[in-house]
Design a protein that fits this description.
This is Bacteriophage Mx8 p63 C-terminal domain-containing protein. The chain has helices at 34-41, 46-54, 77-80, 106-119, 128-154, 164-180, 186-195, 202-206, 209-219, 228-235, 254-273, 277-292, 318-327, 331-341; strands spanning 5-15, 18-25, 30-33, 89-92, 99-103. With 351 residues, it is of the alpha+beta class.
Length: 351
């Protein structure tokens, strides 16, 4: 490893809920402590250590740092990192204990490799939160970077208070996190259960996943412009078993997300004032009649106003049956019927 350098300056880098000890060595190298990088982006599973050793001397790289030793990240290591990025640096802060870290310039690249893996759909469902964290951090770091450059160019860096940039960074991170906050509040699903007389418990929730998803689509996503839900469905990553591994709303634009949250906000009050699902259906339909024309949502209810569960998606509501009958009407067949009856009544004009 060569000479062990001493840290002339040391501190802690706070990135939202991430705290990483950092230092500036006597040669000017900025260092991030390895242990805390692993804590936030790595895994200590046996498979990771095997993959770490497997890559020794492969493509010029030594053993991979454990925070990038993942099969999901492996295809993107070489294109993201330089050889020197992944070489650990030993240093000391007290002249006695030896610590291990990496050049601070590696941090944006760690975020980048997670985002590449997400883009190419190599991540497991359990790894997606790390990719989300990486996106929040890389966006925030880009913003603080331009702030620091302006400060340096104007000389303000000498007048600002210590850790002011970290405070600004914390604001940026909080701003990015809000974009990923829970979009569908528990209240929406609690009301779905209440309106049907179901117990809102862990056991009850497990027994209703399919129909709840259908209602989420019907009352929320389908109220977005036509074709939006279908397009979002195409973008969502799938697991090997065919299940969604991402939330559809994560692909919405800022305007689209605002439309979605407004729809949720407008729907919940209707649910709260309804006594049962039948009444909610009526109130919901009434609220959109002025915008989309009149139609009846295809969910049948019993005499208590609770949903009638059925696996037959071909069952139509009374309104839709009548509508189908009207659409299936063939005037030519009607003419033949009149002819057979030898009706002498003159046919009225259509226009």
């Amino acid at each position: 490893m060569g000479k062990i350098l001493k840290a002339d300056y040391k501190g802690e880098l706070t990135l939202g809920d991430i705290v990483i000890p950092c230092a500036v060595l006597e040669d000017g190298t900025r260092i991030l402590n390895e242990t805390n990088i692993i804590k936030n982006f790595g895994s200590t599973g046996g498979k990771n250590y095997k993959l770490r050793n497997k890559n020794e001397n492969k493509n010029g790289f030594g053993p991979l740092p454990i925070f990038v030793a993942s099969k999901a990240l492996e295809p993107f290591i070489e294109s993201t990192f330089d050889e020197m990025d992944l070489i650990p640096i030993e240093y000391t802060t007290d002249g006695e204990n030896i610590l291990k870290g990496y050049n601070a310039t590696i941090f944006p690249k760690i975020c980048e490799v997670w985002l590449k893996a997400r883009e190419h759909r190599t991540l497991q469902g359990s790894q997606l939160p790390k990719a989300m964290k990486a996106e929040i951090l890389i966006r925030s770091l880009a913003k603080i970077g331009i702030t620091a450059l302006v400060d340096e160019a104007t000389g303000y860096q000498y007048d600002r208070e210590k850790e002011e940039l970290q405070k600004i960074l914390g604001f940026y991170i909080a701003e990015e996190k809000r974009k990923w906050e829970k979009t569908f509040p528990d209240e929406l699903y609690r009301q779905f259960f209440r309106l049907n007389g179901w117990d809102y418990t862990v056991h009850g929730i497990k027994n209703r996943p399919g129909v709840i998803g259908t209602w989420t689509n019907t009352y929320i996503y389908d109220q977005l412009p036509i074709g939006v839900r279908e397009k979002l469905k195409e973008k969502v990553s799938k697991s090997q078993s065919g299940n969604d591994t991402e939330r559809m709303h994560s692909y919405l634009t800022e305007d689209g997300l605002e439309h979605l949250t407004n729809q949720i906000r407008d729907t919940i009050p209707l649910m709260r004032i309804a006594d049962n699902f039948e009444e909610f259906k009526y109130l919901f339909q009434k609220s959109i009649d002025r915008q989309r024309g009149q139609y009846e949502l295809p969910f049948e209810t019993d005499n208590k106003g609770h949903i009638i569960e059925t696996k037959d998606e071909t069952i139509l509501s009374t309104y839709n049956k009548n509508l189908k009958k009207a659409l299936d009407f063939n005037p030519n067949n009607e003419g033949k019927t009149i002819s057979k009856r030898q009706s002498k009544k003159p046919q009225s004009k259509l226009f």
